[in-house]
Structure formats: structure tokens, C-alpha cells
Amino acid sequence: MDFRLRSVPLLSRVGADRADHLRTDVDAAIAGWAEAALLRVDSRNHVLVANGRVVLGAASAFADKPPADAVFLGRIEGGRHVWAIRGPLEAPRDPDVQAVVTDLRRGGQSLDDVSAQLVSSAIALLNWHDSARFSAVDGSPTKPFRGGWSRVNPVTGHEEFPRIDPAVICLVHDGGDRVILARQRVWPERFFSLLAGFVEAGESFEACVAREIREEIGVTVRDVRYLGSQPWPFPRSLMVGFHATADPAEQFSYNDGEIAEAAWFTRAEVRAALEAGDWSSTSESKLLLPGSISIARVIIESWAAL
Question: What are the percentages of helix, strand and coil residues in the chain, rounded to 5?
Fold first, then answer.
């Protein structure tokens, strides 16, 4: 059995122009700052959202020029530059704009493509800067460079770039009408999703799929096939999606202690769970699935639609 994703995962959609050529153009950055938009992200990675769009303030009202710790996100409609900073949220100046405080996990599904890209990029970059203030080579303090897309040791000139942790996520099926869903120990009862794990050094994505599933539930998979990917800035991951086949006769064994339970579910059961909503639902469904911000949801929906 083979299938494709029915839609592009929310955080994988192209919205703003990243305009990477402007990251080292200091004159352009300063010139664009006067009319630039500013995205504020607080210490909990919360942002303000109104009418499906992230709230952007005026950069010039914050400072006369781009601060050293601001990150350049690109350009939006009209060529307007967008920067992001870590700091307290500020209510929109327009009293008619009703904004709410939210984050990507809870409110990401309501964002348009431009906002989703801006927020996910800002969070990933700001999270990296929070933990990369000192060189990984010699421990020296580093300074932001390239509009926040790298950090440089001012003494040695050594440049470090944002770290991305690749992880796989896989829908395991029997080649027919059944799929494995699992619940982590830290999740509430009835919360199930796909199996996932981080890629190890010297390992391919496909090998990681086989190893992680074997470690987590003791099942051997075959015919591992790629589906798609999605940035996941919690704090700086890239989720790479696959599907694979397993034998339902194999017994589950929870070898690494991460998974509390796993089970085979029919396509009809999965469809019913999708109709019941997601993890935020008050439904009494025996199976609750991830929300639409996650590539897991897109993979499950694509399989269920076969």
C-alpha cells in the first residue's frame, strides 16, 4: 500500500519571503527598519493573534534601528521587512483589534500561511539564541550575525548556525485496514498518536524509523516510505514523516519505557476519532488524536481517506 499526504502540513507552507540575501545587508536592514513590522514572542513562546493573523507592531516604535538580538524573518506583502524579538507582548494600538494570547500548539491551526511561517521561524531562532550565547568550540561569548541567522565569535571569527534536531514520525499499518497508534506515559488517557523519535549520529531516516519503532513497541517494520516533513520549533526540531508496514501477529513490548500502551485501530475507528475532533475536544471518544498543527494529523487523515 502507498499513499501521499492530502495537504501540506501547516508549518510547512510557504508564506513570507525569507529574503535571505538581506541578512548580511546592513544598509538594507537599517533602511527597511523605519517601515518594518515587529513580532514579539514572550518567554513562554506566546504571541498575540487577531483574526487568524499574528499581531505585528511597528519596529520603529521599539527602537531606532534593529537591536543586536532581533532576528530578521523576511518580507511580507508590499516588501515590508519583518523582525522578531524576545520580550513582553504589547496590545495592538488599534482598540478595535481584539487580540488573544496563544502559542503554536494551541492556536496554530487558526493562523494563515504567512503568520504560521513567521511565528514558527521566530520561535525556532529565538529558542536557539537563548541557548547558544557561548561558543560550542571554546566557550567564548558569541554575538548574533546575519540578521540573527548565525552567531560569531568576535575574537576567532568562528561562525555557528542554528541547530536543527531531525526526528522521524511514522504511521505503521498492516498494508490494509489497520494502523498502530500509541500513547506516551506523560499523555492523558485516550490521547494517541504516531510513533516518533530523534535521529542518531550516523543514521539514515529510514534506519531511524526501524530502530525507534523496535525500541518503543518491539515491532519490526518493513517497506519504509517517505511522506513529507514539517518544522517543529519545540524547541528546534524537523519532523520527517514516513509510513511503514508491520505484522499484526507480532506482540508489543515496551522496551524503552516511553510508551504506556499501543494498539491496532481500524480505519473506521480512526475516521470516527477524526470526526470527534482532536486532543482539545471534550468528546467522550475512546480515541483522541493530535491537532491539525501537527504533521501527525495530516498523515493520519491521509491514511484514513484511502
Answer: 25, 30, 45
| Per-residue model confidence as pLDDT tens digits over 46-103 | 999 999 999 999 999 999 999 999 999 999 999 999 999 999 999 898 888 899 999 9
Parallel, antiparallel or unpaired: strands 57-58 and 71-75: unpaired
Q: Options 3.90.79.20, 1.10.472.10, 3.30.70.100, 3.10.180.10; which CATH number does 10-160 get?
A: 3.90.79.20
The predicted-structure confidence for 9-53, as pLDDT tens digits, reads as follows 999 998 899 999 999 998 998 899 999 999 999 999 999 999 999
Query: What are the boundaries of each domain within the chain?
Result: 10-160, 165-304
- Relative orientation angle of helices 295-304 and 267-276, to the nearest 10 degrees: 130
- Nearest-angstrom CA–CA distance, 116 and 9: 11
- Separation CA 149–CA 172 (nearest Å): 36
Q: What angle do CA 123, 230, 185 make, to 5 degrees?
A: 85
| Residues 228/13, Cβ–Cβ less than 8 Å | no
Asked: is 165-304 a CATH 3.40.50.2300 domain? The reply is: no
Cross-strand pairs, 290 = none
